[in-house]
Design a protein that fits this description.
Distance between the termini: 64 Å
Number of strands: 20
Helix content: under 10%
Largest sheet: 10 strands, parallel
Structural class: mainly beta
Order of helices and strands: EEEEEEEEEEEEEEEEEEEHE
Oligomer: single chain
Strand order of the largest sheet: 3-4-6-8-9-11-13-14-15-16
Radius of gyration: 24 Å
Number of helices: 1
Strand content: 15-25%
């Protein structure tokens, strides 16, 4: 795919020279206006499909701001001064990817006009304080939501219900309550909640999640009881990161899905590491051998550390009457 350079003054007139890059071949035209000192939106051509307004001085988006570009499907306005976005700002476009990071937004824009198109919304590094139950309700195709490094204090428990989210990033906020991910169901794969103020997780928040690629990150919070993660069943390669918490109680998980969960609570670093050796029906002998080798390697590693204090960690009571779980192996932690 070749790139052809065209002079921009045919479309927009400024006191400085600007060029735009048009990617030809599939009808996609990319207009790049990075770092041009813009305070208002330029006049746009109806053939533009991608627009980059990074690092300018735009502070608001009015109604039908991009209606001159009805084929626009990717819009980037990071590093501006955005304070206000009108409810109708993105109407009459086909925007699928919307990047508004590093601005001054205090609330999530109303994106009702994009309810049938938007799949990625990036609002990283703004000043958003609340995520309401209705904020994302109409965005049924939204797959990726990035809200890290905001001022989030409140997230309604049902904020993600009705969506098909696959990836959620809520890192470095002030969140104290974990929203309900069970209503998202099997679509969710990545949950990032590092660096918040979470002390407890409501029962049912992860019930029914069964993605084979599930990644959950709760590093640098205030968790002490993580038994809620036993609600996550039928996953084959879970990645659970709970470093830098205050964990004193671990989950008792069904022995049918997880045979052994070794937990070390290193008091010096407050780090938390969990290794699952999973033995399910039909598991191959090679997987079993690898699991056993991982167990011995992990045990040897622990024996070499002075900060491994087994007695500091206890096994919680079963959360499911059918779960035998780790209680049978409690002698390993004494």
């Amino acid at each position: 795919m070749s790139r052809v350079v065209y002079p921009l003054p045919l479309m927009v007139t400024y006191k400085f020279l600007v060029v735009y890059f048009a990617t030809m071949g599939k009808g996609h035209i990319y207009l790049d206006l990075t770092s041009q000192g813009l305070t208002n939106l330029p006049d746009l051509n109806m053939t533009i499909t991608r627009l980059n307004l990074r690092n300018n001085n735009i502070d608001m988006l009015g109604p039908y701001a991009f209606s001159q570009a009805p084929k626009l499907y990717k819009l980037e306005i990071p590093g501006n001064l955005l304070l206000q976005v009108h409810n109708l700002a993105f109407c009459e476009t086909l925007i699928q990817t919307l990047k508004l990071q590093d601005n001054n937004l205090v609330e999530i824009p109303n994106l009702g006009c994009l309810n049938n198109t938007i799949t990625l919304l990036d609002l990283t590094s703004n000043k958003i304080e609340c995520l309401y139950e209705t904020s994302l309700q109409l965005l049924k195709h939204l797959a990726s939501l990035y809200l890290s490094n905001n001022h989030l204090l409140r997230i309604d428990y049902s904020s993600f219900c009705g969506t098909n989210l696959e990836r959620v990033k809520l890192e470095q906020n002030f969140i104290g309550i974990v929203p309900d991910f069970s209503c998202v169901g099997k679509s969710i794969e990545d949950i990032y909640m590092k660096g918040n103020r979470i002390r407890n997780i409501t029962r049912g928040a992860f019930a029914g999640i069964s993605s084979n690629n599930l990644f959950i990150q709760f590093t640098d919070n205030h968790l002490s009881d993580v038994s809620v993660f036993s609600e996550i069943y039928d996953f084959s390669a879970p990645r659970l990161m709970l470093n830098s918490n205050n964990i004193t109680c671990i989950a008792s998980v069904s022995i049918h899905n997880i045979l052994i969960g070794l937990v070390i609570l290193a008091s010096m670093t407050k780090s938390f590491t969990i290794v699952h050796l999973q033995i399910s029906q039909g598991v191959s002998s090679m997987v079993l051998i690898r699991s056993i080798l991982s167990l011995f390697s992990f045990a040897l590693f622990c024996l070499q550390r002075d900060s491994c204090h087994w007695k500091r960690t206890k096994i919680c009571k079963d959360v499911s009457p059918k779960s035998k779980g780790l209680a049978e192996y409690s002698h390993m932690f004494k």
